[in-house]
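Human:
If only I could read backbone structure tokens as easily as an amino acid sequence. I am handing you a single protein, as its sequence and its fold in token form. I hope you can help me see how the letters and the tokens relate. Thank you; the sequence and its tokens follow:
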Amino acid sequence: MSGLNLKEKRILVKNFFEKNKAKGKAFTVKYFQKLGISRRTVYNIISLAEKGASFSRKVGSGRKSWKINKSKKLKIAKSVDGKTGIS
């Protein structure tokens, strides 16, 4: 299961849960715990599936990117110059 990304895990758990809904949530959780997915993750996925949430990435949900300008680069370089080994 470690080779799957989060989206693939979500889809797999959702499909399994929907096929075995009559057996209950605990059945799904135990099955995926044996495969190495944490209990809390499976319950979160089941909760989302019951709400009918989409498992695709939402537009604009990632971190905004920005570039550092030259003067800030120089300030940072000067502030750490000669201070090796200090965090």
In short: The chain has a mean pLDDT of 86. Helices lie at 6-19, 25-34, 39-51, 70-80. The longest helix spans residues 6-19.
